[in-house]
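As a next step, we paired sequence with structure tokens, yielding the entry below.
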Amino acid sequence: MGRFAMAQIGTFTRDENGAGTIKTLTLNVKATIKSCDRDNDKAPDYRVTANGVDYA
């Protein structure tokens, strides 16, 4: 199979604590991305928190 280039749909800029901004065509929100402990192989590697909501 050939290699395909993936389109960039947004950016995340952050500081050393994981806090930053997610920017896409429709989003511009302050968020935090932090690694998390995994209790099984299907658990997420990171947690995203934006506006007080936790997205796994």
Observations:
- Strands lie at 10-14, 19-24, 28-35, 46-50, 53-55.
- The mean pLDDT is 86.
